[in-house]
Amino acid sequence: MSKPRIAVVGIGGMGSYHTNLVNCGGLFDLVAIVEPVAAARHVATEEFSVRGAADISEIVDEIDCAIIATPTLYHFEVAQTLLNAGKHLLIEKPISYEIAQANKLIAIAESKQLVLQVGHVERFNPAFRAVANHVATPLFIDAVRTSNYSFRSTDIGVTLDLMIHDIDLVLSLVDSPIAAIDAVGSVVIGPHEDIANARLTFENGAFANLTASRVNSEPQRTMRIEGPQGSTKIDFDRRTAYTIDVSTQTDSLQIDLPNTSEDELTDLKSRFFVDYLPKTEVVVPEGNPLAMEQEDFATAIIKGGAVQVSGRDGRDALAVAIEIANQICNKKPASPHAIKGPHFATDTAKSQA
User: Fold this and answer.
1) How far apart are the first and last CA of the chain?
2) What is the CATH number of domain 124-286?
3) How crowded is the C-beta side of 189, counted as CA atoms within 13 Å?
4) d(CA 335, CA 300)
5) b or e along 311-346 (b: 16 or more beta carbons within 10 Å of the residue's beta carbon)?
6) What was the pLDDT predicted at 1?
7) Residue 180 forms beta bridges with which residues?
8) Stated pTM of the model
């Protein structure tokens, strides 16, 4: 296949980002943008010098694939139509509004051997990718994702809007089923939760604390991962990372505080993160995560390989996010939940629908 012919459906913030990168990336042949709001469609067609359509039916026979960047409420309807028409899809996160919808999309895509990718773009963040070899067996993960109020994505709460990024990352890191989910949160602007905190406990003993807010004056996107290998800190915004390893010298470290002089303590402190817990700044290569996501999509279409974030991955993250949002909404006490981790069995995931 030559360049796949593509349409971008939905021309809000993410749709505009995608369209700009499609135009500049050279990976696709941009056929049209699809936007039902005439004013927005007109602006976008002028800005990107591309044909505009009010409905996907106008261009469905002219494309091989599409990027769906509509509000979440419309993901399923648009995606189902395009998959049934034999089109490969990249759907912005979350994959859909309901787990049953996600399962239907996955079933159609697999039956027709179509690429179904979900836009959990942090998987492509260069800082996250740079530390992949250092976080093989995490025991504790602490993630914070906060932002100013953007006045977008008000059809969903902060759990499906922001926290779901970290849910996906955690599920990709911890190879174990989830044993329990405990969540709290609050509505500030509404109508859905704007602040959320969740604790995921896994059957292998690992656990993750996730905090998300979209009413924070100080934006932050960070993750700390602790395990036998040491500690890793990622800043997704700055695209930086560092690791702290546990040196073999710690095995023989003995400190007799009552008999240690101030000079000896000063020397020990100066060498502590050099000799005993060496801190290393990770070299993070340049890269645009959204462009890398699109490249992954194009490669899967052309060469027939698997994408980094599949429809099943998107469904799994959605299942956890919905449970968290429901706990917050219903203010129910914590209880165990049979939600699996990164490697769902097909029947288990379907049972959550």
Assistant:
1) 36
2) 3.30.360.10
3) 16
4) 39
5) bbbbbbbbbbbbbbbebbeeeeeeeebebbbbebee
6) 65
7) 201, 336
8) 0.88
